[in-house]
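Researcher: Structure prediction, please.
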Amino acid sequence: MMAEPGVAALLEETLRVFRENYPGCEPGIGVAAPGRVNLIGEHTDYNQGFVLPVALPMVTVVIGCQSADGIISLLTTAKEADEPKRLEFPVPTEANPLSPGLPSWANYVKGVIQHYRAGPLPGFKAVMASNVPLGGGLSSSASLEVAMYTFLQQICPDDENLVEKALTCQKAEHTFASMPCGIMDQFISVMGKKNHALLIDCRSLEVTPVPLTDPNLVVLITNSNVRHTLTGSEYPTRRMQCMEAAKALRKESLRDVSMADLKAAEAHLDAEVYCRARHVISEIRRTTDAAEALTSRDYQAFGRLMVQSHNSLRDDYEVSCRELDELVAAAMDGEGVYGSRMTGGGFGGCTVTLVDVAAVDKTIQRIKDKYSGTATFYITKPSRGAHVLKL
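Model: Predicted structure follows.
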């Protein structure tokens, strides 16, 4: 497939880097996998709830070629990645599996290689580049994992099961990056559909496309440029609190708990755990309601649900921060904006705003005027999932 304009520029730069670093080996394979923004449904995926993300035109590109020496050579162009930027190791075997280590950027890739569902893999040389902002809550890690898996599919085909592909990439993040993420990021990167959000049932793994085709509507992503790191204690702590609440209510997950169930058990729950559960239970309901609103083009209702989601993440789940709250308040303080909320794991990163196309410029200027920091803006529409590039 032909690359989209932003992807084409990224691909051209990646090809240049490859040829400089691997003279005499012309890349024959190129793939791309997108980042994502979640419209609504935050911290619900690991509670077997619903999420409503879209794939972004921002992608990770992997290009490369096979080699006959049984060696895998990886090179990242990411300025933020820790050194070394180039890494070589033998193709893994049962007797000699890969294990996580330094540099940390390589763990996402090594995990996918180790858990890849077909084999044996040949040696290969690959260069990775991305225009998905790191630490912005737009899932740069899943984009990298899915891009690498898609690359491996070109040199050693698997059965092309999309669900298993996404689950393998999630497993790589769990086991090699020590990040107990839910399934949303990998699913949307694999299965993203142009001009659609995907309503993902994180228990049944059923995916329902939700049209987002109105030409008068755009998704505005605002990066607070506050870098978030989710591998600290906050994310695992939230996950444990949700498990604690479900266990106290004798349910497999919070997906099976109603608000009435929770209120009846309030006296038996730690106050903080109660609030965490209240966010998740209400957010699951908001997400299915939001999918219905989007389907019927009731953007006012959708926007109200976005704001309710942000308030719940701020007050009950406590994963927002001053900068994100400022961005949401500034976005909502004008005409043509339906809704705005923090998106991603929290503690920084981005907000997502549903806005009328005619109001985008004024909305951006208003946010610039009111925000205490320096924001970066992306005007976007839902894009396709992982795909092969024409080199």
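Model: The chain has a mean pLDDT of 94.
Researcher: Thanks, that helps.
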